[in-house]
UniProtKB/TrEMBL annotation:
<dbReference type="GO" id="GO:0036503">
    <property type="term" value="P:ERAD pathway"/>
</dbReference>
<protein>
    <recommendedName>
        <fullName>Peptide-N(4)-(N-acetyl-beta-glucosaminyl)asparagine amidase</fullName>
        <ecNumber>3.5.1.52</ecNumber>
    </recommendedName>
</protein>
<dbReference type="Pfam" id="PF01841">
    <property type="entry name" value="Transglut_core"/>
</dbReference>
<feature type="domain" description="Transglutaminase-like">
    <location>
        <begin position="166"/>
        <end position="221"/>
    </location>
</feature>
<keyword id="KW-0862">Zinc</keyword>
<dbReference type="GO" id="GO:0005634">
    <property type="term" value="C:nucleus"/>
</dbReference>
<dbReference type="GO" id="GO:0005829">
    <property type="term" value="C:cytosol"/>
</dbReference>
<comment type="similarity">
    <text>Belongs to the transglutaminase-like superfamily. PNGase family.</text>
</comment>
<feature type="region of interest" description="Disordered">
    <location>
        <begin position="315"/>
        <end position="346"/>
    </location>
</feature>
<keyword id="KW-0479">Metal-binding</keyword>
<dbReference type="InterPro" id="IPR050883">
    <property type="entry name" value="PNGase"/>
</dbReference>
<feature type="compositionally biased region" description="Polar residues">
    <location>
        <begin position="317"/>
        <end position="329"/>
    </location>
</feature>
<dbReference type="InterPro" id="IPR002931">
    <property type="entry name" value="Transglutaminase-like"/>
</dbReference>
<dbReference type="GO" id="GO:0006516">
    <property type="term" value="P:glycoprotein catabolic process"/>
</dbReference>
<dbReference type="GO" id="GO:0000224">
    <property type="term" value="F:peptide-N4-(N-acetyl-beta-glucosaminyl)asparagine amidase activity"/>
</dbReference>
<dbReference type="GO" id="GO:0046872">
    <property type="term" value="F:metal ion binding"/>
</dbReference>
<dbReference type="InterPro" id="IPR038765">
    <property type="entry name" value="Papain-like_cys_pep_sf"/>
</dbReference>
Amino acid sequence: MFLVKYKDFILSKFKRTEPVKSIKFQNLIHSNHFAQNLFGQSQHLCTIYDNSAWHSIVLETLDLGLIYRNVDNEFAKDGLEDGDIIYSDYLVKELLRYFKQDFFKWCNKPECDHCGQNTSENMTSMGTQGPNAEESKFNCGTVEVYKCNLCGSVTKFPRYNDPIKLLETRQGRCGEWCNLFTLILKSFGLDARYVWNREDHVWCEYFSPRLNRWVHVDSCEQSFDQPYIYSVNWGKKMSYCIAFGKDGVVDVSKRYILQNRLPRDEIKEEDLKFLCQFITKRLRASLNDDEIYQLACRDEQEEIELITGKVKETETKGNATASKTSNIGRESGSADWKAQRGEDGK
């Protein structure tokens, strides 16, 4: 009886029409640039990856035989049986390995179009320019231009934001890596969301059925369930970390900013909470009662986790301790680039 009444309370709260909140939302968007930015990102990031045609293209492009063979081998090695809910965790870990080691390439500087492979160290930046008509077709925001010190030719590095185009180019930095990897997770039917950090980094989260919670996933680092790596291992200073998914927008800063906190003065805390809740309610407007209730219960569990800093299960204590003390600094990117960004652990 209590659970029935509680469910009714949650649903009535969600479905309640409150014109005053709509007015507050509009005023906030028009008066606060940070709120406007988050809302703009939500309109893109909360919907773009749920594209069945794109999912088909991804699955046709990746080596599914290799991926599932590796997952099955690891699964069997650990003595697990088919149907175990832990399977998706193994799948995500293999996708991280495959993406970083076999499929995608980090690009500090592009290879010279004329000289060929292994020439990126001979490239000198000449600045940036806007995209041409062809590059614009693939949601390219800017184009980096480089000159080869050996032959003098010019090579362009378009920063594409179209994940399907990235399946073709297979190179980039953290923006391209997270963009495509989020789509890959969704293509395998996994519940995933995109995490944006104001201090210029992005990564993913995946909802683990076994752990019954959101798990940190960073394809650049091949990192699974290590939310501490940014503030602890890299020494990165951060202020805001916001997660964008098809069912909601959440401030997950407390999960990742364990030290080296920067001031949070872009928006009032109560306004940020209101904004995330308002956008989330909009995103769930078409869901049925059971779906709304299940997501609300999941929200409450996550809120408790973020407030207390406690999770049901993470890495084993030994592995977590070793990771925090031995892996200092970011793996991906050149030494100079990491130092400029304050991500080298120094």
